[in-house]
Specification:
This protein folds into two domains: about 280 residues, NAD(P)-binding Rossmann-like Domain (Rossmann fold), CATH 3.40.50.720; about 200 residues, N-(1-d-carboxylethyl)-l-norvaline Dehydrogenase, domain 2, CATH 1.10.1040. It is an alpha/beta fold and about 475 residues long. The protein is about 45% helix and about 10% strand. It binds D-mannonic acid. D-mannonic acid binds next to helix 11 and helix 15.
Length: about 475
């Protein structure tokens, strides 16, 4: 069977939809940092929809940490299959918007040069929360981060995202290139502002004049992105090969739903994204709060409670009526009353989320969502708890979700099966678990002391007692009983 690449497009007669444009006419206008499954199922698909009309917005992808994506896609001329699955149906489409993938550690010079190139007008990012190298509780750049320390001394390249963008923007200025747009597509509150903050804080240390040039001229629009994209499995590869009639080393599998809301503030033009279904707006804030707190907040609660209860996938977990009822009540009773989103029926949004979670063909692993909890808990759960506390309203379900994260750090599910903690703070978190367990309260107290995660809540006795109470029930009775016990 042939490998997917430009040559096979000509005579391809299988069911996968082909790019609706001539790939040889495409030139790059976007550099995307962090070219993983999510980008390929989301932004790259929206751009693919525009390339027939606007061929100057091709994407150069960059991977900072791993070479596997480049190695898989280079022999395919960077083509890949996007498979949208629902029930028995799979709709396959070949995406052609990625024209190159760069991987060049440790200094990432080719990535820096690509961002500095005159043709680049937008840089998009999906690098996950931890790559912003910020203190999750304050949002400021973490100057103690080893990559930031190294990059502040390096005049030859960079390995962190803030350092890399600093180096690239500095090169743009030296070369007389104009300002551009840096568009964060990560699940962070005010992701545009967050990116602007870490880049300018980094730049200020190295070159205050450059920092001012960036602040005054570059655009950092906020955006809300949403599509559930599990890691691709070998079974997915086999199924797509059987369906499409070609070999694709790294297809992406996703759900039908997709949403992208972007603040319409660009420094050097943009594709007509609204014609590809993107919502362009002045204020992303309400959408972002809705998505982060409802979807991602429920996802994290479901992941930690679900792993404890032995559920491997999201769909298995929400098939448990106790867990589904718990999430529904957490969203309706505790999260929705803290949100105001114009023209959106939040009850219907909650219902749609539970339906999306129950998509059994997706095989979205609870352990995948459970990773990086220290970076996710603040914006997904703690912000809502603060809102509830400020109004004197109860928040037991959110407390239980936080307790479930702490419970997760012991490295064993409810049946005693071991797993690794995957988190940038893993070493510190495992050290705490090793030092304190089997004393559950000591574990809880030590984790709740972590300022970078809990900020002011570390000093809040009511919050602490509430989480500790839930933690004890979790260890003694398990997640299902603990969820059923919340009234
Ligand atoms: C998930 C997200 O892994 C996770 O933490 O909550 O990746 C989620 O699937 C996406 O944000 C959905 O848009």
């Amino acid at each position: 069977m042939n490998r997917l690449n430009n040559n096979i497009l000509q005579d391809y007669a299988g069911p996968a939809r082909l790019p609706a444009y001539d790939r040889s006419a495409i030139s790059p206008g976007i550099v995307h940092i962090g070219i993983g499954a999510f980008h390929r199922a989301h932004q790259a698909a929206y751009i693919d929809d525009r390339l027939g009309e606007e061929p100057g917005w091709g994407i150069i992808g960059a991977s900072l940490r791993r070479s596997d994506m480049r190695n898989a896609l280079m022999p395919q001329d960077y083509l890949y299959t996007l498979a949208v699955r629902h029930g028995e149906e799979t709709k396959a489409r070949i995406i052609g918007s990625v024209t190159d993938i760069l991987y060049a550690p440790p200094g990432n010079r080719p990535v820096i040069e690509a961002i500095a190139a005159p043709s680049t007008r937008i840089v998009t990012l999906t690098v996950t929360e931890k790559a912003y190298c910020r203190n999750p509780a304050t949002g400021d750049l973490d100057f103690d981060h080893p990559d930031i320390k190294a990059d502040l001394k390096n005049s030859d390249g960079a390995q962190s995202v803030p350092g890399l963008l600093y180096a690239a923007l500095s090169m743009r200025r030296r070369n007389g290139q104009s300002p551009i747009t840096l568009l964060s597509c990560d699940n962070l509150p005010d992701n545009g502002g967050t990116l602007a903050r870490v880049v300018t804080q980094f730049a200020r240390e190295r070159d205050p004049a450059l920092a001012r040039w960036i602040e005054d001229n570059f655009a950092f629009p906020a955006s809300m992105v949403d599509r559930i994209v599990p890691a691709t499995t070998d079974a997915d590869r086999d199924a797509i090969e059987a369906l499409s009639g070609y070999v694709d080393a790294w297809p992406v599998v996703t759900e039908p739903f997709s949403q992208w809301v972007v603040e319409d503030r660009f420094a050097a033009g943009r594709p007509a994204l609204e014609l590809a279904g993107v919502i362009m707006t002045d204020d992303v804030g309400p959408f972002e709060a809705m998505k982060l707190k409802m979807l991602n907040g429920s996802h994290s609660a479901l992941a930690y409670l679900g792993v404890e209860a032995g559920y491997v996938t999201v769909a298995d977990a929400v098939a448990d009526p106790v867990l589904a009822r718990f999430l529904d009540a957490m969203m309706r009773d505790e999260i929705i009353p803290t949100l105001t989103v114009p023209d959106v029926d939040l009850g219907a949004y909650a219902k749609a989320l539970l339906e999306r979670f129950s998509n059994t063909v997706l095989k979205h692993r609870t352990m995948q969502i459970a990773m990086d909890g220290s970076q996710k808990i603040p914006q997904r759960l703690l912000g809502t708890i603060r809102d509830r506390m400020a109004k004197g309203l109860p928040h037991q379900r959110l407390d239980l979700a936080v307790a479930a994260w702490i419970r997760h750090l012991c490295g064993r599910d409810g049946a005693g099966n071991r797993y690794e903690i995957d988190d940038p703070m893993a070493r510190q978190l495992s050290e705490i678990a090793g030092r304190t367990l089997p004393d559950v309260l000591a574990l809880g107290n030590a984790v709740l002391d972590l300022q970078p995660v809990f900020g002011d809540l570390s000093d809040n006795a009511r919050f602490r007692d509430a989480v500790l109470a839930q933690l004890r029930i979790l260890f003694e009775e398990g997640a299902v009983t603990a969820m059923a016990a919340v009234r």
